[in-house]
Amino acid sequence: MPATIKQLHYICAVADSGSIMGASDALRIAQSSITAAIEAVEHDLGARVFDRRRGRGARLTPQGERFMQAARRLLSAERRYQQELSALADQHSELRIGCFEPFASLFVVEVLSRLRAKLPNLKVSLVEGDQPRLKRFLERGELDLLLAYDLGPDFEAGVTEITPSPPHALVSAAGPFAARDSVSIAELAAHPFVLLSQPLTVTYLLTLLGASGLPPVIGFRSRSYDSVLRAVAAGFGNSVLNLRPPKPLDVETGCLRLPLTDDLPAPMLIAVDNYGDQKPRVVRAFMDELHAYLTPPGATGRLPGRDAPRAADLERRLS
Length: 319
What we know:
Elements: H1 5-17, H2 20-27, H3 31-45, E1 50-53, E2 57-60, H4 62-90, E3 95-100, H5 101-118, E4 124-129, H6 131-139, E5 145-149, E6 158-164, E7 168-172, H7 185-189, E8 193-196, H8 201-210, E9 218-222, H9 225-233, E10 239-241, E11 255-259, E12 268-273, H10 281-294, H11 314-318
Helix pairs in contact: 1-2, 1-3, 1-4, 5-10
């Protein structure tokens, strides 16, 4: 049986130290393991590698010298292989992420920027879209990871919960709720509404408004998260959004985010991939960075709001 890499390491240590005892001390393993490695290699080679005599240590034989040259070349190639493999794992050439359109400006670009500080050679392909479209891309293997809310049909791929996203109100800084600390859905429904009209999201938002018993008056609708912020600031109405960025966005000047007084379902931000337990290192690193960015400092265990009602319960609660 050909010598293993481990056996070659043992024999090189004997040659370097000049004795089995010296190799045992250097490698911190039993002398019997080293002796067994030498005997296995000598049996396979059909010749003695070391001349071992009491009081003289272990000296390479002529055949052992030739064997050691080949062994060192093999170990050097093995080290280069491990280094290149590690570099490939740590500096993945491209991370393919799909995200629900509002997430890019809310947090994804910031999280990727933090990740690139740790992996300087990281390249990113970011696809923004609605959840049904992103799901198709993931199923075709065109994405490593997608970020979405747990709304709509279930994913067949692996799902990791990131953080709940309780709804909150977005109001104009010049509007009637500007001086308030909080507001209710019924109060918002009595005024024109600015609607983020993404698939699945629009149904969720209209259902929330319908819980007030008042038909919503849509004063402005757009698929663009930034356009919704600007429309609220411009006085077209108020809105309800979910995930709050850790710091205000540049485009939300003229807007205020207020808590809602209602006990409402909270969609869960999820990460979905097809890798299962074998996630590439760069995917795991991104998810770790995402958790760190969205989890409040000092939070432990379940994230704040994790016990809030889930969006999937909304239809049952309103029926």
